[in-house]
Amino acid sequence: MKLFTHNMLTSKMIRNVQVGYPLKLCASEVKITPTDFRPGFLSKVIPKIDWTVLVEAVNSVGNTEPLPPALAEDYDKNDDFLRKAHHALFEIEIEVITGEMECPETGRKFPIQNGVPNMLVNEDEV
Amino acid sequence: MDLVPNLQVFEALGGALLGAGGRVLLRNGGFIQLDMELERRQAEPVEEGGSNKGGPRGTKKLSRKEHKMMNVIAKQMNVEISQRPSEWAVIWGPSLSTGTPKRDLKKMCDPPPVEIRQYENKMFSAMRFLDPAHAAIAKADLSGRDFAELQTMYVGFLGGEPPLESIEAASPFKVGLPEGLELIPEFISEEEEENILKTLVPEDLNGLGQSLKRRWVRHFGFDFDYDTNNVDTTKPSAYAEFPKCVSPVVERLVEKNIVRKKPEQITLNHYLPGQGIPPHVDTHSPFEEPILSLSLKGSVVMDFRDGIRHSAIILPRRSLLVMKGESRFLWTHGIANRTFDVLLDVDEGVTARPREPRLSLTFRLLKENKVCNCRFPFMCDSQKGKITSENASNLEDNLVHQVYEDIAQHFSSTRHTPWPKIKEFVQNLGQSDVLLDVGCGNGKYLQLRGSCCEVGTDMSTGLLSICRSTKNAEVLKSNCLMLPFKNNTFDAIICIAVLHHLSTKERRLQAVNEIFRTLRPGGQALIYVWAKNQEVDETKSVYAQKQDVKTTSNDLAADSKQDILKNYTFLPVHNRESDFPHNDMLVPWIKGSTDKSEVHHRFYHVFNQGELEDLILEIVPQPSIIDSYYDQGNWCARFQKTHV
Lengths: 126, 644
Known about the structure:
The structure holds two protein chains of two kinds.
Chain A: H1 3-6, E1 24-26, E2 30-32, H2 39-45, H3 51-61, H4 79-91, E3 92-94, E4 99-102, E5 109-113, E6 116-117
Antiparallel strand pairs in A: 1-4, 2-3, 4-5, 5-6
Chain B: H1 7-12, E1 16-19, E2 23-26, H2 60-77, E3 81-82, E4 88-92, H3 102-108, E5 115-118, E6 124-128, H4 132-142, E7 146-148, E8 151-152, E9 154-158, E10 181-184, H5 190-200, E11 210-211, E12 216-220, E13 222-225, E14 230-236, H6 247-255, E15 265-271, E16 277-280, E17 291-296, E18 300-306, E19 309-315, E20 320-323, H7 325-329, E21 332-335, E22 340-345, E23 349-354, E24 358-364, H8 392-413, H9 420-427, E25 435-438, E26 454-458, H10 461-471, E27 475-477, E28 490-496, H11 505-518, E29 519-530, E30 535-536, E31 539-540, H12 542-546, H13 562-565, E32 584-591, E33 598-605, H14 611-616, E34 624-631, E35 634-640
Parallel strand pairs in B: 25-26, 25-28, 26-27, 28-29
Antiparallel strand pairs in B: 1-2, 3-9, 4-6, 4-9, 5-6, 7-8, 10-20, 11-12, 12-15, 13-14, 15-24, 16-21, 17-20, 17-24, 18-19, 18-21, 22-23, 29-35, 30-31, 32-33, 34-35
Helix pairs in contact in B: 8-10
């Protein structure tokens, strides 16, 4: 699972959960795969991202350079910033053997195995 | 089960003999139905033997071909071929396999043969002439001539008597007519028949009534709905009144105590040669017994089946078929789509009988309480199980999710080529457009545009790990009823061949709502679902084409999950040789090679035309449908979440 995906995930489908976002990330194994850096593409993707959530996710993954806490005003012209964002969004691949994501309200855990989060909830949980 | 044949029927037919495999013999100039499923078989290849130089036509090629065919015949008949004329000749070509009636064959010879013998699945006929010289004349006249397109006749002489025609299967009463079936010949007079035909059958059938794929129908009283196999009693048909010409028939039905009240519904079917009706049991709850069928204009053979039991009956013109008891509630009845029936005529023996145009009137009596208490609960819509909001989730677990886990590897190996229109939709997206593939399967629509802004979801762990191992695609496990994503997230969503695995309308709507919820305003979704109709504009879908390849078994018995399937006996299993007759059904998946294959049954709700659009338009606030079309046996719709 990439942090880009984590940025969209919620546990809102669980009964009585109001927001269910962001999911608390706990990673025990992280794989970093270099991919092409395309600044023009990234400056279009960044507005779709919840930056604070991404910053927190990068911190929880550890093992990597922290992101600037806030979006730089001229981020689309800031190559260094875009590189960091690219790294966080698309190069960080989290593979958890015994890790998980956690619903911020109920504590319900979603395991990640071999890079695939299991976001399935039972019908009696909804 | 009680198999006592209905004596009334035999008397009515002038004493009929029944046998296994649907053989029927009528003594008074009638016929025996021999086999519904004749395969046109090609000759076995034979090795080149000593050639018969200088045949009657003199050409070397003809003589060689003829020699070959005669070898084939000799082998199959176990009778030697004679080089010298004998009273028995054999002809390659006109036969039961080609549907050539004996009388037509007789006419081709002058002087004619005195006896003809024909055999099931064989491409030849044996002819006995009064004199060997007559046989020689026939050979000289016919050998090398074409009798049909690309079909050449060859004639030879037999060194002995050919085998008798096989009527051993017609030995009586092995499988009788279904209990409760009765045929009343000459139920209407010739004048009445003529009157009905004159009134009800226009010369041009186009634009009148309802044109089904294989026949033309019209309803009186109430319309029969082929999607639900039911009638809506609140809505009388456009032809609410029965036509006058039918009145004497209706009155006679009551007078003769065949029915306890006047039928309220009539279906008129018009069949051309080659047209038939798929095997079916009339839905139990809306109609009383009996179901009545009056035949006009042409005779036809009707098949009755119950599991492996097969019976058949000839419906002569002007006869009335009365289906009660088992024949009404348990056995399916149907008419094969073919241009001729193979019958055993008492005078002619086994012979083909070309079909003629036929009109039938089906009379049905509406059931007031719409509840059936028959003895066959597994065939009965009143008594059998139903899909409910309570069992739907379990059903999908057992008949969809578990099956995909079981067949993941094999399924994936058959799903590699993206369909062009879906590929086009995906490739038209911008690089930074975020795409969600709901029910991504083996990920064949992921990574089609070189962008990492996409994610796939599926229920099958097996398929998800194939996505990871083959293309390292970004995927997660979730149910389409509860997508784990924030609102207004995706620029585009595709959901291909997923919704038809959801077993209730509420759940299908919920899935569409989830797609809508996670779509951003202005974003578009593309949905594909399996169509009930697998043939639109005369183009067969890939699935329908594959049906031509016969599967080893469609029988539920072949599925290893008997204990699970027994809870779902109310779901019909789709027979690959026919259209989808129902919306909710089990479709067999044959895994593995023919000698070691396994059968798995998946649940499908196949969609009617317009059903997908209706579902989408139930979303609040209503999205706008940009495009909807039929593609490869699927109904497809593309809609946009409009800006608020």
